[in-house]
Amino acid sequence: MERETVNQMQGNRLSEIDLVRAIAIIGVLAVHATSFSTVEMLAYPNSFPVYNFINIFLKFGTPVFIFLSSFVLFLNYYHRPISKDTILIFYKKRWVHIIIPYLVFSTIYYLLVYFTRDAADLPSSFLFDFAYKIGTGTAYSHLYFVFISIQFYLLFPFALWSLQKWPRLLPWIIPLGLLLQWLFFGLDQQIDIPNVGSWAFSYISFYLLGAYWGVRYPAIKQWSAARLQGSMPRLRLLAIAACWFVWLLVGLWHASVWFDLRMHTIVRPLYVYTVLWNMYTLLSALLFLWAAAMILNRYRPDRLWLAKLRELGSLSFGIYLIHPLFLAAYRVVRSGVASETSLHLWYAGGFLLALLASWASVWFAHRYLPALSGLLFGKNELRALRRDAAKSNTAATGT
Questions:
Q1: CA atoms of 156 and 252, how far apart (whole Å)
Q2: What is the pLDDT confidence band of residue 30, given thresholds at 50, 70 and 90?
Q3: How far apart are CA 257 and CA 260, in angstroms?
Q4: Which of 45, 76, 79, 140 is deepest in the core (most CB within 10 A)?
């Protein structure tokens, strides 16, 4: 029965992934749109807690994307035999859909920063500086995510082979991920690793959690489906409610320690911030995936709001790449003096511009410029989304 579930998943798009991606990209955009507010709104003590909350509580986007990336890879590849052709096709897809867009946008952002710098701040060697930033994921502040994803792709065949050869390792990979990540954090405290957040070991717990969940997801789905046929036991309801309560508690705690730091300069040990962030984002990844599956189980996939969220999720990689361009342009035209009310409107406008303009740009490119969009925004997910929507509507109407 589990093998049948695996085959079904490999042949169909997992709609819950698109919903979780939509949540994650909204979090990313909200955090980036409020980045200036964490300094500017300190002058308004009544408003600052709201902006601090948005900026910290929604900081789950990158870890959730990393979890999903690993989850999808292991879900699709774990039950396949590894061969030379499989690995070559895997890397060809990553080169076309991930690395080329990374190189293109790294170049765009690097040139944007280079030509807007003061002459005194320009590097002595253009080519060396450019190559260094490409090779460290630092051409622009958000590109570290793509850079660490590339590192994960390099590690993936070895991790896949290890789990296929020694399946008894599977229950241990989640604690192994936490151990490796925290050893890396400890090493950074000793030797101050350059660009520490641009290295895969800073997020290895999310990668290995995604690996475990991807391997076990067919069994998890099968188990959940069997229990959804009847009423949900009270004990299970309490367990789920407890998980959401812990998630909320840790998220609020994380936001509060950052509020104390920013507003009152109360500095806690670095591990406090890191532990709270790690706990909160790991729980976010799992609970968002669970919530997305529950939503799709309850609502028809052709509902407008659900279809649009799935579309947003399917375009999230391109939106992630391009949205800082809109935010940068938006901030250039800002007036120098602003009241508190106009600042509220300014931050809200930045978020909406980053969301809607990026969404429209990526959608338009994938819809009308497919050859160009592949180089800029990676895989055209709109086609797969339409095919899946057609299948869902056919199943729903019985035609």
A1: 34
A2: very high
A3: 5
A4: 140
- Give percent of the chain above pLDDT 70: 90
**pTM (2 d.p.):** 0.92
**Which two three-digit tokens encode residue 135?**
């090779």
Task: Using alpha carbons, select from 255, 271, 159 the residue that is nearest to residue 215.
Answer: 159
- Cβ distance 51 to 346 under 8 Å? no
Which residue's entry shows tokens 């409020």?
34
Integer CA distances (angstroms), 41 to 37, 283, 340, 345, 347, in order: 5, 29, 8, 13, 11
Q: What is the DSSP string of 70-83?
A: HHHHHHHHTTS---
CB 101 within 8 A of CB 375: yes
- Of 131, 100, 161, give the one whose Cα is nearest residue 318: 100
- From the list 232, 236, 229, 281, the residue with the least C-alpha distance to 254 is 281
Q: For tokens 């669970």, what's the residue? A: 290
Q: Per residue in 183-240, pLDDT tens?
A: 999 999 999 999 998 999 999 999 999 999 999 998 887 776 655 555 567 778 888 8
Supply the DSSP symbol for 98: I
Chain centre to alpha carbon of residue 326 = 19
Distance CA 330, CA 298 (A): 39
Examine the pLDDT at 3 and tell me if it is beyond 70: no
Half-sphere exposure of 347 (CA within 13 A, CB side): 24
